[in-house]
Design a protein that fits this description.
The protein has about 450 residues and is of the alpha/beta class. The chain has two domains: about 350 residues, Rossmann fold (3-Layer(aba) Sandwich); about 90 residues, ANL, C-terminal domain (GMP Synthetase, Chain A, domain 3), CATH 3.30.300. It has eleven helices and 25 strands. Helix 1 packs antiparallel against helix 2 and helix 2 packs across helix 3. The chain is globular, with a radius of gyration of 23 Å. The N and C termini lie far apart (about 60 Å). The relative contact order is 0.09.
Amino acid sequence: MFKAVFDQCPTQIAIIDQEQSLSYAQLNAYVNSAVNHFQNMGIQKNDTISILSENTTSYLITLCALWRMGAVVCLLNVRLPDKIIEAQTKYIQSKYLLKSKNIDYKNYTLHENNPCNTFSINQIATILFTSGSTGIPKAAVHTFANHCFSAKNSNINIPIKRGDRWLLSLPLYHVGGLSIFFRILLGQGTVVIPKNKNDIGSLIVLHKITHISLVPTQLQKLLQENINITSLKMVLLGSGPISENLLNEARKKSWPIYKTYGMTEMSSQIATAHKKFAEAKIFSGNKVKISKKGEVLIKGNTLFKGYLQKNNKIDRSIDSEGWFATGDLGSITKDGFLNISGRKDNMFISGGENIQPEEIEKYLCQIDGIQNAIVIAAADKKFGFRPKAFVQLEKKSKLKTKDIIYHLSTHLPKFKCPDKFFLWPKKMTNKSIKIKRSDFKNLHDIVLLS
């Protein structure tokens, strides 16, 4: 599959990193070399192989080589402690764990041609552990078809062509990062790999980046850098709620923001804006409906194969009609736009009233001076639970609790207004690309906003 892409554009630049660039012909040759290396290690078709590495050219070469051999690749989170990595590799019955030092393509003997296994597009390609933001991470299994249809749907909405450059600003173990590589391959563009997360702004300018995927925290930092973004055609922004203040700031600085909603189980995007700053519209290849209880249900050719179980069987996790329950609450407009109101399991009851934290966060993030907000349920003897909020203030902000309460009172009933407001803990800044609500529940040394 990938060899056909490589043969169509041999001189086109496929990968750029901090040291050099590789054409598609060079990439193909190094993939062949890696195949020979892994065959000598004893890796065979259908073997499950784990990779633990930061984003590198060697990582991408390794992925292509293992796929060419018909192996199944599990992409592991480098932030996890060794004990969890060991448990995850054991759970999926991984034959090898490949780390950065094991996959340096410069150590391979170069081969122009190499025999390889043929495989079905419906064959299992990857295992990705979910973020575990609402519970224990699950091993999500995807086929090549899942990833390819996802990339095709994305490229129809936001075209990729030769000469376009997508910055690999998200980790490959995150479906948002892995999907970039599939989109680039199908569109025969170029993927640019930053050496570290602090290089993003400078690399946009240096390499004239045309496409980039960001989470809100990354965009927030880049907006403070005041970089030249004239080369950017599209900024795909997702992986959580996006504050109106952040969008307004991006709009003022002419950033081409395309909002997106997706998840690991759907191989990345489910709905994405079709023009700058528009709401996310459901892709034509995806089917979405809302259950009687308001939950978003999905199915389509990008829906994963299921969750891998301990007995090596796959749990499809779908109902009798093939629908997968996302755990998100939302609504669909008559024009096909998808609005997400929050997570089903984030909702809590306070004095008999339902409270959705994301609703409160939405209005908190509309207040000038607030960059981010997280609302959690705090145990209360009288009401069962009461909302308490953490707010990330802008550097020059002089907001007080009374100012925040006044603003919320114009949008929400009194019972939804948090009893206490705390300053954003320093330890939560830059912790990960995705903010986990659970990380805020047992914090100590928190500072009450005056």
